[in-house]
Design goal:
The chain has a domain at about 20-49. Strands 2-1-3 form a three-stranded antiparallel sheet, with no helix packed on it. The protein is about 35% helix and about 25% strand. The termini are far apart. It is an alpha+beta fold and about 50 residues long. Strand 1 (about 25) and strand 2 (about 35) form a beta hairpin. The protein contains one helix and three strands.
Length: about 50
């Protein structure tokens, strides 16, 4: 039980670091929204989260 109390908060902190990644929004050839973790073209917009 003591290990869980120590490991759980550390795991949550580590996962929070990944949540700060940027998300980009573009449009494909048919005008549909495409989301990516990398810029998907010159018209890529950063999506706030």
């Amino acid at each position: 039980m003591r290990r869980f109390v120590l490991i759980a908060p550390l795991t949550l902190l580590a996962l929070d670091a990944f949540a700060d990644a940027l998300l980009y929004r573009c449009q494909d050839a048919k005008g549909r929204a495409v989301f990516s973790d990398e810029p998907c073209g010159p018209s890529a917009e950063i999506v706030e989260h």
